[in-house]
Fold each of these.
Amino acid sequence: MFGYEQALKQLTGRRYRWLVTGGAGFIGSHLVELLLRNGQTVTTLDNLSTGQLTNLEQIECAVGASAWQCHQFIEGDIRDLTVCRQACAGVEFVLHQAALGSVPRSIDDPIATNASNVTGFVNMLVAAKDAGVQRFVYAASSSTYGDHPGLPKIEAQIGRPLSPYAVTKYVNELYAGAFSQCYGIETIGLRYFNVFGARQDPYGPYAAVIPCWIRAMLSNEPVPIFGDGETTRDFCYIENAIRANVLAAVVRNAEAVQQVYNIAQGGSTSLNQLFEMLRSLLSQDFSRLQDIRPVFKDFRAGDVKHSRADISKAQRLLGYQPSRDVRQGLEEALPWYIARMSNSHATSVA
């Protein structure tokens, strides 16, 4: 059966040309690193609104000078069609990760969210189509399930979106389907479920829950839980998301293309369980955290109460298999956050 190891072997046999939008960001930077480690030629397109050059600097150090010579960085915005065309020139595979994320951010500023996530997405589809890109893999979102009560979440059953962000990600799927139908471009959407890992920014008002809590714990700040803590999520470690992108890009099964897939662990973790997990792991190095308690706040607008993915479709058609569960992912990611927080503290003191 086709799987991740077979997908990597396809890469070792040929140097493909890839474009990773949002490549200086969290998920995008991991994709750039993986591709360069496997002998690929990569262009990164990022406007650095949420991405960081330090992520690219870390990749350069990790892959070495020879591999880094096969990387090009374009600082530009997907809202600019000319920039999108420049980035797509000569590219065979697009991994489109660029977006303005966060449900709360979209509620605060729906216009900016729509501009990046809808206008920018269409710009990238047009540029990829005109450049003759072989396949366009894009970041979809579990927020698309909206108010549909069913668990686990199945790709064909969605509800009404609960936030502007969710609307934009659903529109992405509709546009991708329309472009496939009208122009023949191969598209695959990956509905990420709460991806976490190293390089996920712990700062700012829209930080995701895991990096936000790690930063709060290490900084002796209150750890907020919105609601009663029984809200559940299917937290997906970054390694799992990277595997899914590679599989989606190179899978040769015709049935697998023009599809949308759940990309997750396939499990369920409550916020209370997540808090206990983080406290337990961090207490091994920081004993002061053994007795900390969270601060409970009101539920946030636009948040889904429960989310758990059915990943059988991705397993069947892509050969996707999660490689890490939540605790294993946290164990791998925490050293990066501890080092990041230590460096930030040292810089602020200096």
Note: Residues 253 and 317 are 7 Å apart (CA to CA).
Amino acid sequence: MRAKKSPARNRFSPVLAFLAAALAASALRPAQQQTNEAPADEIVANLAAGRVVIAVVKDAILIGTIENPIEPETRPPTPVPMASSRAGVILGPVDWFSVPAHQQLALLNKELPHLRSQLVHAAPSLQQSSREGGEATDIQAIGQGLLERLNNLAVELHGKIDLPESQPLETLVVADYLPAYGPEIWQLTYGIEQLQQHGEYWNTRVLRPQYLQFWPPEKGASHTLVEFHYPPEDTSPSLLDLLKRKDERLEKVISSDAKMKEVADRIVSGQIGKVASADATQFLRAALDALAPPKSRETMAAIGMEHGFDWILAPPPEPKPEGAQPKSDRPEAAPSLLNPH
């Protein structure tokens, strides 16, 4: 079932309508079951949506995020410390809960540091990693752990989901430092598969993630910013593209200080590794502020080569884990997954 686009919604409506339909799928039951049963539970999910910008500089990895407040209760993409020198950012549905039961089903940002599978066999793509001395089985352990958790949730999804083949349900970005290897950035994307059982009743499972390594760059490629957007169809220019185009918002930042111009020049010329973390932090904070939509929230964290993970701009408090938010806390326009529009 493809959710129809409402004229009043913005250009990301198809993505959000899909998520609404998908996560409300527990409300879809075969007609013969619905006749004698009470309405099924309503499942609601809040999305982490926006821009993630990662800078691998001389002495740190900087991760800056901007929320794209495309729906009520949107969450800012948030770096989650997973170890002293590793962080992950989930893009997509992060908070899942049942409204009638007032039961929290998942808080993926809280759970992420513990989602590691013990049953890992390195994927062929990871065996080709440029790490010295072995396979990237630690990244796959994280990817498999999140996969298992998502499939725990997917067993409740029984409605038809018309998701474009290239569009993932969930994305995980991982950045870290490894001894004797250095900094790396991975993107893990999770698709779904459905099998029709009878009528409008489908079984849903989340597929093994696809792994893409964005850092270190390919030999001869520029060493510059790495950026990710959610929803996937967000075609907003990256920070790097905006710098190259001399966007007026960024030009004001660059012209404010000679050091700002130096950092911007290093980024554009692909020499970001020569920038000190203190200078890069000052530039990224100002640049992301200039690009942030009104009322959107930002976060920033650093993974230092010597001191590990630390907050530069901490995220807003996580939602309470004891259950779904009280009705009074959710705006009336919030996306009810039984009535996504």
Note: The chain has one domain: 13-236+294-314.
